[in-house]
Amino acid sequence: MVKISPSILSADFSILGEEARRMEVAGADLLHIDVMDGHFVPNITIGAPVVKSLRPRTKLPLDVHLMIEHPEQYIGDFAAAGADIITIHEEAADDVAAALALIRSKGVAASLSIKPKTPAKAVFPYLDDVSMILVMTVEPGFGGQALIEDTLLKVQEIRRECVRRGLEMDIQVDGGISPANIGRVAACGANVFVAGSAVFGAKDAAAAIAQMRAQCVIS
User: Fold this and answer.
1) Of 3, 10, 14, 214, which has the fewest Cβ atoms less than 10 A away?
2) What is the DSSP secondary-structure string of 86-115?
3) Is 94 labeled as catalytic in the residue annotation?
């Protein structure tokens, strides 16, 4: 199933609740929330209080991506704030398996991400412990970057491994996704797409989401 997850990095933060509602009305499936600490990635964004403030403003599942060091220290806060999905980085957790187990223990869907230079096989030991794998298709930290083509090979590799194991896994991609390339990315095996400016910056967000969804043929 194709899912579109607009990233609030491209939203107007002065009216963030209204922006979340706008994405819901436009037909988004999730709302992507990038949390950055200025250490794991070279940028600082938001924390659990913003997630808590958004929770009553939208019915969309909150797709929280923790781009932070020692994520296990903050999983409880984001779960309590209303996250529906929490993604941690394979490169950042002190104990990946324990962190994923902690997420699940909070009643939240667990997801694991890898950066562009991390091999696809890094997530293989954890495929049975997650409901989603996030492949970063740009170096995390800032929006508006162009998709790194080599990352699509990792999407293919992870999808093949999931098929081999009989796992119905969501594979999310984040970075440089637009109507111009989403069909090609979907053909590689991704089915969940984070989009920032392509949706929030569109004159008609509903039309942009519909166009992106229509171009996806999941292999």
Assistant:
1) 14
2) EEEETTT-SSHHHHHHHHHHTT-EEEEEE-
3) no
